[in-house]
Specification:
The chain is built from 11 helices and 2 strands; from the N terminus they run H-H-H-H-H-H-E-E-H-H-H-H-H. Helix 6 packs across helix 7.
Length: 283
């Protein structure tokens, strides 16, 4: 009897709690936003996963928050002419499918989302989902033998989940100076010397590699969403998370694609350049 009641209450309670949180966010006073988007370096290099983001769904290396004052971007990227791409035929097919999905569905929906949702609410939505991922960062900081960052992530989650109203606001940064440092299983695998393997294009998520694919699988099973909600609420929340995160960078994809001679090669090289910079990046 109690288990049947829990199954009924769990998804509806999660949705009600999220809706209450959004209403609270709508009444918030806006704070300065962090600009997002993929900006090109003046020296002719492209945005990277260490400091920016690839403008496709699921590439999150950026602070949460809506887009503002996007800089002009140009498709400059270091070429990987000698890169061996053994999955080229398969990858090109998936890239073509993803490209149509982005241009004819996700980008128009992202425009509508950015137009419809007020900036303070959009910012708080990004904070909410970022907060849900914070325990995953804490676990990976521990696996990377970074106890200080693990403690910071744990404290951030505790502060933002309580004082920040389920993570809608970020008092951990504003009041206590606990900066957000996101990391994942791909960083942990790289820490222990595992290379990225083969370049791979994933359905919906686009440019990836074997190490990143393993990261996505591990992140799914450690995400709290599947354990707090039931289907179809779980899939809906995860899909919405992907949309709200992709929306600020959606136009960058369109601009870069239009200005590149071969979009597949360009986005592949852009991704590989980001992988190389991540490997050389010392936090």
């Amino acid at each position: 009897m109690m288990s049947r009641f829990a199954r009924c209450v769990r998804p509806s309670g999660a949705v009600a709690l999220f809706c209450f949180a959004l209403c609270s966010a709508g009444c918030a006073t806006p704070s300065p936003r962090t600009p997002s988007g993929a900006a090109a370096d003046p020296g002719g290099s492209a945005p990277t996963t260490a400091t920016g983001r690839l403008p496709v769904p699921g590439h999150r290396r950026r602070p949460a928050g809506p887009a503002q004052d996007r800089p002009e971007i140009e498709p400059h990227v270091v070429a990987h002419r000698d890169y061996r791409d053994p999955l080229l035929p398969f990858n090109r097919v998936l890239f073509t499918v993803n490209d149509a999905l982005y241009r004819y569905m996700l980008i128009p929906v992202s425009r509508g989302y950015l137009w419809l949702v007020p900036d303070p609410v959009e910012r708080s939505i990004g904070n909410f989902f970022q907060n849900l991922r914070t325990p995953l960062s804490a676990v990976n900081h521990l696996l990377q033998l970074q106890p200080g960052r693990m403690s910071t992530s744990t404290l951030r989650f505790a502060v933002n989940s309580t004082l920040g109203l389920l993570g809608l606001f970020d008092p951990a940064t504003a009041w206590f100076g606990l900066e957000h440092r996101e990391t994942g299983f791909d960083d942990t695998l790289a820490y222990y010397g595992l290379g990225y393997g083969l370049y791979l294009v994933l359905p919906l998520f686009g440019p990836s590699d074997l190490r990143d694919a393993a990261n996505r699988v591990g992140s799914y099973f450690l995400s709290p969403i599947p354990y707090l909600t039931d289907e179809p609420v779980t899939t809906g929340l995860q899909g919405f998370d992907t949309l709200q995160d992709f929306a600020p960078a959606a136009e960058n994809y369109r601009v870069l694609r239009r200005q590149s001679e071969d979009p597949y090669i360009f986005f592949r090289n852009l991704y590989l350049q980001g992988v190389q910079r991540d490997a050389a990046y010392t936090p």
